[in-house]
Amino acid sequence: MTTTPNLILLYPEIFLMVAASTILLIDMFLSEARRGITYALSLATLLVCALLTLIDFNAGATLYTFSNMFVSDPMSHLLKLFSYGAVALTLIYSRSYVTERGMLGGNLGGEFYVLALFALLGQMVMISANNFLIIYLGLELMSLSLYALVALRRDNAKATEAAMKYFILGAMASGFLLYGISMLYGATGSLDLTTVAKMATSGAANPTILVFGIVFLMAGLAFKLGAVPFHMWVPDVYQGSPTAVTLLLGAAPKLAAFAIFVRLLVEGLMPMARDWQQMLMVLAVLSLAVGNLTAIAQTNLKRMLAYSTIAQMGFVLLGLMAGSVGLDSSGAANAYSSAMFYVITYVLTTLGTFGVIMLLARAGFEAEELVDFKGLSQRSPWFAVVMSVLMFSLAGVPPMMGFTAKFAVLQAVLGTGQIWLTLIAVIFSLVGAFYYLRLVKMMWFDEPVDKSPLTAKGDMRFVLSLNGVAVVALGLLPGPLLSVCLVAMTKTLNS
């Protein structure tokens, strides 16, 4: 470890910050007809960031800088690479959507793209943070950008209401998180995660204060992940936001949320595992139950996917909980890598799902009700196949990627000897399969309400098709990605 600032480790973050600011300035001088330049520059920025991060990822080293407040390790590199991909796909899928709704015209300009990049910057800071305040800094940078994005359509009552709910509840969650951090600081005298872990291990910190701090910390983190009982904002914000913004909310931020769970609980508070594992277990079971059961009653597709997200995050929490049995962490790398693989699977599948929703949408029509997907196979057989593949993956039907992810997490939970918890997860997965398969049935066996053929731009058609193929391919051949996740997590935990 070194206290000498090493800016090379922050090259991706520095470049993204400079590029986003530059794109904002350039966009000021562009007319609405030339806004494609902002779009192209945003994608180019993500490509350069990916190349910079890929160089560090191939090195495979774990390095610290800025007095150990920032860490560059294999886990952070892998999550950042998938974050770039998630944001890039979001921008590609939403290009026509935001243009048709005037989200790039008038006084708005290209703020959609710039705010998406700043939200990504916040996620990158969260992923590499090794200090409580740096985690909070990244979290607020991401959150403030997302608050602004949800409210971007100021003339839309639903979007404004969603933004208010998200902002108020988000501020409350930040308060919980800060209060938890202050209690942990009071107990250990440090904001550095490594120091906190040492203090907790040595027994020098007051265990009662540590547990109370963890409770408030978990409340704040559970809100960001959308876990029950801190899920109230998810369905309303998903439904009220423009679909392009819903995708920005529901995809890449989950990767950052997973990272801070690992940083705070695994790297910072592993000696208190017995306490936070019980909390994770409760959050996971409640999320699986409430998410899957409530999704069945939904007629709005975005609300259904919101409750689906809550249930999917329950599986992620199960993987995090299975990392150690008591103080035995011999299976930690396997459990945490399965949880990482699950998050990546969820993000990839969610991107494709919302991509199809935006494909069906047009000016004045959102295509967010289940009935809007009736007879999709008659309008576009190929995209009906793609959507079916994505639904099968979310339901955990083999040989899709989602089945492999669920199986990996359940295997990790079973390894802890908690058979009852595995059975609960399987039962609620079967319950959840109903509402996914219901949509597949509507696409293939119901008569369409709208019989007009679907048209899509070449880039969106290609990328969306590639997204669907990737879900199948990674289900049939999950080994390489599972191995990369396992190696990244093993190196991170051993550093």
Description of the molecule:
- This protein has helices at residues 11-27, 36-59, 74-100, 111-128, 132-150, 157-188, 193-202, 207-225, 233-240, 243-250, 252-268, 273-296, 301-321, 332-360, 376-379, 381-395, 401-415, 419-445, 458-476, 479-494, and strands at residues 63-65, 70-72.
- The protein has 495 residues and is mainly alpha-helical.
- A two-stranded antiparallel ribbon has the order 1-2.
- The longest helix has 32 residues, at 157-188.
SSE topology:
Elements: H1 11-27, H2 36-59, E1 63-65, E2 70-72, H3 74-100, H4 111-128, H5 132-150, H6 157-188, H7 193-202, H8 207-225, H9 233-240, H10 243-250, H11 252-268, H12 273-296, H13 301-321, H14 332-360, H15 376-379, H16 381-395, H17 401-415, H18 419-445, H19 458-476, H20 479-494
Antiparallel strand pairs: 1-2
Helix pairs in contact: 1-2, 1-4, 2-3, 3-4, 3-10, 3-11, 3-14, 4-5, 4-11, 5-6, 6-8, 6-9, 7-11, 8-12, 9-13, 10-14, 11-14, 12-13, 12-18, 13-14, 13-17, 14-16, 14-17, 14-19, 14-20, 16-18, 16-19, 17-18, 17-19
Strand order of the largest sheet: 1-2
What is the number of helices? 20
In N-to-C order, the SSE pattern is HHEEHHHHHHHHHHHHHHHHHH
Could you tell me how far the N terminus lies from the C terminus, measured between alpha carbons in angstroms? 10 Å
What general form does the structure show? Answer: globular
In terms of DSSP E residues, the strand content is under 5%
Poorly predicted runs of 5 or more residues: none
The helix/strand class is: mainly alpha
How large is the radius of gyration? 22 Å
Number of domains: 1
Q: How would you characterize the largest beta sheet?
A: 2 strands, antiparallel
Q: Helical amount among residues, as a percent range?
A: over 70%
Mean pLDDT: 89
How would you name the oligomeric state of the polypeptide chains in this document? single chain
